[in-house]
Amino acid sequence: MIEDLNRIIIEEIKALEVLLGCLDRQHEYIAKDDVFKMEAVVEDINNCNKKIAKLEMERRNITKGESMEQIVNASDYSELDENYRKARKLVEELKVQKETNEILIKQGLGYTTRMLQVLNPDRQPKTYGAYGKMKR
Question: Where are the alpha helices (DSSP H) in 64-123?
């Protein structure tokens, strides 16, 4: 069981590294405003996510609902412990990169929305309501 878990974690590490590379490429394309390449990377990210989910289901079938941390702490297999820590570190790096990309995309969309409002303002006449507030 421990060897199987170690093998799966090693495969997960490889898949997580590929996903991190995809997110780095996405970050690069966001910075360059290359929309078409960003769209192409989304498919790669989805494929990586599917592979990771498959490996995770395989791992859960082996552990039968038991916590990985408990299994790693209970085993004396140092390679499993090392690989588990490496996988967790990669997951944290992925979270940071994903959040960074999301923030940059939201900022870009906000900027685009503001520019569209400047270029094409609301055509309705502005009037004041009973309390002196602007109606739109």
Answer: 68-74, 78-119
Q: What pLDDT shows up at residue 20? A: 96
- Name every residue whose Cβ is closer than 8 Å to that of residue 93 and which is 6 or more positions away in sequence: 20
Name the least confident of 7-16, 52-61, 63-72. 63-72
Question: Measured between alpha carbons, how far is 28 from 34 in angstroms, rounded to an integer?
Answer: 9
What is the CATH code for 2-135? 1.20.58
What Å distances lie between residue 84 and 6, 35, 42, 80, 90, CA to CA?
A: 8, 36, 27, 6, 10
**66 token code pair:** 């038991």
Q: How many CB atoms lie within 10 A of CB 40?
A: 13
Compute the distance between CA of residue 97 and CA of residue 122 in angstroms, rounded to an integer.
37
Q: What is the pLDDT of residues 57-66, one digit of tens each?
A: 999 998 888 8
The answer to whether the CB of 95 falls within 8 A of the CB of 20 is no
Domain parsing of the chain, residue ranges: 2-135
The answer to whether the beta carbons of residues 3 and 62 sit under 8 Å apart is no
